Amino acid sequence: MTSGQPLPQDREPSWTIAQVAERTGLSHDTLRYYEKAGLIERVGRTTGNQRRYEAADLLWLEFLLRLRETGMSISDMQHYARLRAEGDATVADRLAMLREHRAELADRMRALRRNASALDDKIEHYERLLDERRPGTDELT
Amino acid sequence: MTSGQPLPQDREPSWTIAQVAERTGLSHDTLRYYEKAGLIERVGRTTGNQRRYEAADLLWLEFLLRLRETGMSISDMQHYARLRAEGDATVADRLAMLREHRAELADRMRALRRNASALDDKIEHYERLLDERRPGTDELT
DNA sequence: GCTTGACCTGGAGCGCGCTCCAGGTTCTAC
DNA sequence: GTAGAACCTGGAGCGCGCTCCAGGTCAAGC
């Protein structure tokens, strides 16, 4: 009867907050803040109340970071996280959120491309302007 | 001797702050804030001290908005505006700033594309998941 | 057992980019 | 000339997304 329950060494691997911070690029404070804000469900603890992140926590964090990097606000991520916590019944709602976010992202990317090419024009303009001002450089070589 | 100096009706067109706000999508407060912050050189005034924006002001504002929309911070825009105010001698510096900004923009756009396609995968995954859960819908029609 | 560094909590503070406010002046239309 | 809308200034306030702090507890190596 020593092997019915998972023994300590059978447990899935877990990471300290410092390791997760290192890996995600988030600070300790930000990780704790995300948990306090409800973006992450309460992370498992040691008997001494220290966080131990598991693989699933890391996957979720990576997804959150993708949302953040594509410009989703904390409050929208909170909304998404709440839906997720409610389980499979909210899959359609989450899909709708992702589709809307994706569409906004497409808009922003279009705008960025437009602005980027306007910047390119300006840069080219400055380059020509500088070339014209130092015409001797070439003639002397 | 009545036509040597530009008469009032010869003046170039100008716009009130409300018209510029309407046109740029910025609020009155933001326009005043940008001027106070040194992003815009002091705009011309009526004798009664009310702002009258001219064509050159609008062009510069549009350029600033392009920098802002591509993620440049106010303090970097202040730096750029200071260089511009110093005149042609700073063209090379401004070009360097624009090139760096453009490179950062390219990086961010690459990251956005990566994240966008990861989002697309997730969206597809949810779509399949929903389809599988309601297999009857098709069979009955 | 002790030391030292990592970790905990609740709550205050901060930098950014505006936004709002009070109290006053100017412009426009009648 | 007057009413009402638009504008002015300096400065306070705000929402966001963290970041820092104080005052403690816990864990790992010696």
From TrEMBL, chains A, B:
<dbReference type="GO" id="GO:0003677">
    <property type="term" value="F:DNA binding"/>
</dbReference>
<keyword id="KW-0238">DNA-binding</keyword>
<dbReference type="InterPro" id="IPR009061">
    <property type="entry name" value="DNA-bd_dom_put_sf"/>
</dbReference>
<keyword id="KW-0175">Coiled coil</keyword>
<protein>
    <submittedName>
        <fullName>MerR family transcriptional regulator</fullName>
    </submittedName>
</protein>
<feature type="domain" description="HTH merR-type">
    <location>
        <begin position="14"/>
        <end position="83"/>
    </location>
</feature>
<dbReference type="GO" id="GO:0003700">
    <property type="term" value="F:DNA-binding transcription factor activity"/>
</dbReference>
<feature type="coiled-coil region">
    <location>
        <begin position="95"/>
        <end position="129"/>
    </location>
</feature>
<dbReference type="InterPro" id="IPR000551">
    <property type="entry name" value="MerR-type_HTH_dom"/>
</dbReference>
<dbReference type="Pfam" id="PF13411">
    <property type="entry name" value="MerR_1"/>
</dbReference>
<dbReference type="InterPro" id="IPR047057">
    <property type="entry name" value="MerR_fam"/>
</dbReference>
